[in-house]
What does this fold into?
Amino acid sequence: MKSNRNDNIKINLSLVALISTLLFSTKAVVADPIKQGETVKETQTSGLTAQGSDSKEVIPASQTDKTTTANSTPAPASPYYAKVGDMFVTWIDYNYEYSLEARKKFYHAKPAESVVASFQRQIGDTLVTNAMLVQEAKRRNLKPDEAFVKQQLDQFEQKFSQNPNWAQSRPRVLPILTERVKNENLRDKLEKLVRNVPSPTVKELRKYYTIHPEKFTSPPQPRVAIILLRVDPGAPDTDWQQATEQGKDLVKRLRAGESFADLARQYSGDVTAKDGGDMGYLHEGMLPGLPAETVSKLQLGETSDPVSLMEGIAIFRLVDRQPSKVSSFKTVQDRAKKLWLAEHSENAWNSLLDRLKKNTPVQVDESHFLPLSTTTADKPVESVGTTKPKP
It folds into this structure.
C-alpha cells in the first residue's frame, strides 16, 4: 500500500480533473464511452444484465427499480451503469473512470474495437468491485475520517474559489466530491484492516520455511574468467573479423593448455585483465543475456568459443561453481516473517474480494459497450485491478 502522502496526492490530482470537468458542464451528461471526449444525448437504460455467480439474464430497469427497499440507496435520477447490492454506480462515475484510465493506457493511440470492448468491461468490473468494498466497509461500521475529508474538500474549495463557474457549480459538485473522498477513505481503512494479519509464531515460520525451501535457497554461483578483445562498436567489419580470428586462435591455445590468466593479462581489454581475467563468483543476474547463456552451457574448467558482444569479442572460462545452498532458518527468520506476512496479507485481501463477488448481487447495463468479439469473449481479460475508487 502507498503512503498516506502519496494517496493524498493521487486523490488531489483525480479530483482536480473531476472538478474541472464538472465546472464546465452545465449538467451531468451521460457520455458515450465508445467515443471518448464526445457527449451524446442522455440515454435510457433499456436493460440491466444480472451478474452473479451463475446468472446472465437481462432484467428490465423497471423491474430492478422495484426491488429497492426502504433501507437501500435511492436510485439516481439519471441512468446508472450498475446496481451493486444497494449501491448505484452512475454513468458519470463510469465515464470519469474510463476517461482517466483510457488516457493512461492508450494515450493518443486508437486501439482496435476489440481492445476497447474489453477495456470498457475492465473499468466496469473495477467500479463494481470498489462499490462492494465501500459497502463492506460500512457493514463493518467503519467511518470516514472527517478531518481528512474536510482537509481535502477545503483544498479544492481554495483551489477553485477564483473560478468563475465555481459558485454556480458548487452545490452540485460538492456532494459528488464529498462522497468520492469518503468512499476512498473507507476503502483505505478497510484494506488496512483486512491486510493487518497477526504476526506468525516461530512454529508457523518454521513450517513456512520447511514448505518453501526455494524461497531460502541461494542459486549456484559460477566463478568466471574472461578475455575481452575490445573492438569499437562503430569499427568496420574488417576489425571485427580480425578480432574474431584472434579469438579463435586464443581458444586453440587455451584448449592446448596455455594459462588463461597469462593470456588474459596479455590480450584482454577488460578491467579484470590484471587479475588474469578472474571475475570472481557471480550472483544470478550479474551477467547479461548472451554471456550468461554461454557460461551456463560450460562444464567446469571448459573454455567457450569466441562470443561477439557490443564491446568486442569475448572468451569465457568456467573456473568453479558453488552449488545452490539452503540458508539456515536462523539466518533467514526475519525475511521469512516478511514473506509470510506479505503472503497472508494478500491472501486475506483476495479472500475478501472473492467472498464479496460471490455474495453481492450485481446488475450492470452494458448496452453502451462495444460488443465483445468471439475470440475476446473466450479469453480472460487482463484486470484493471481493484484500484481505489478515483475521486
The longest strand covers residues 312-322.
